[in-house]
Amino acid sequence: MDGETRYTIGDLARRSGLSVKTIRYYADSGIVPPTDRSPTGYRLFDAAAVARLELVRTLRDLGVDLASIRRVVDQEVPLHEVAAAHAEALAVQIRVLRLRRAVLTVAARRGSGPAEVDDLHRLAQLSAHERGQLVDDFLNSVFTGDPPTYPGVLVSMTPELPDDPTTEQVQAWLELAELCRDPEFRARMRRLARLHAADHDVPGLPRPDAVAVVRDAVAPALAAGLDPASPDADPVVAAATSRYASLHGHSDDADLRQRLLDRLVPANDPRRDRYLDLVAVLNGWSTGDATVPAVDWFIRALHARMPEPVR
Q1: CB neighbourhood size of 298 (10 A)
Q2: Predicted TM-score of the model (pTM)
Q3: Cβ atoms < 10 Å from Cβ of 166
Q4: Which label site among 55, 128, 188, 189 has the fewest CB atoms less than 10 Å from its CB?
């Protein structure tokens, strides 16, 4: 011997934490061959073999297969090439696992049956082209084939699922896809789009629609917990109706308030807020303030101030 320290398989097991059986397999298969043998026939390993074993253990912990490990330790391929290939493969696996986790999480939360789980799984696996078709079909039905009055409206309603989505984004996509396929929601959104366009029937610069006018006026009252039926809410109602009237060149009278009410009732749907929040999650935007609380508050305030119908 050359005086360098030699280690038995038992020594390596204690140093590395690997089992004797595993190290023996690596030695038998030539991945970590012994350096020498003792007079009694035991396999012995030098410091280089110990370092080789450490590399093998690290690569195995990272999920690299033994065939690739052999090529690395035998210096047939550079380590960085194997690392890059396995990192890419892991990225694909991670994306698949995120999809599965999202489907199972949604199914567990809903208590889904087999049919719904199958549907969720199918939605999660749609290609980018198929997702785009589903959304385009929804938006075309909402705007009846015509672009909205202002392009920003269409942009704010168009989701883009990233190539490498988070679990939260996959869950958001599943929920949004179901909303897009819901005929009743489509009909509600189509009506809202028409009402939005009607609120811009006065020539001139873009102006806020009924929902935006009410949301801005009601925000402080909501924050203060003001009762919409109380006299203290009178100035809030008057400010909103007056602004809406001035934007559309009408008098602030009963007819205008009824028109405003007709615009707001269809918008009093939490699914609209939810859709926009889901788009924000998918697109990486910050979520906006919900409009339904303000709309609901103002509808109740208007009803409390409108005359009883003549019987």
Answers
A1: 29
A2: 0.68
A3: 14
A4: 128
Domain spans, the chain? 9-76, 126-305
- Return the structure tokens found at 38: 């003792």
Q: Which CATH class is domain 9-76?
A: mainly alpha
Of 205, 208, 228, nearest to 218 (Cα)?
A: 228
Are the C-beta atoms of 35 and 2 separated by less than 8 Å? no
CB 16 within 8 A of CB 53: yes
- Rounded distance between C-alpha atoms, residue 264 and residue 277, angstroms: 20
User: What's the first-to-final CA gap in the chain, in angstroms?
Assistant: 114
pLDDT digits (tens, 9 = 90+) for 154-194: 888 899 888 788 889 999 999 999 999 999 999 999 988 88
CA distance 173 to 167: 10
- The pLDDT tens digits for 43-61 are 999 988 889 899 999 999 9
Residue with tokens 């009252």: 221
| Residue closest to 239 by CA, chosen among 207, 217, 261 | 217
pLDDT in tens, 299-311: 999 999 887 654 5
Residue 65 and residue 85: Cα distance in Å, rounded?
12
User: What sign for the dihedral angle of Cα 120, 121, 125, 129?
Assistant: negative
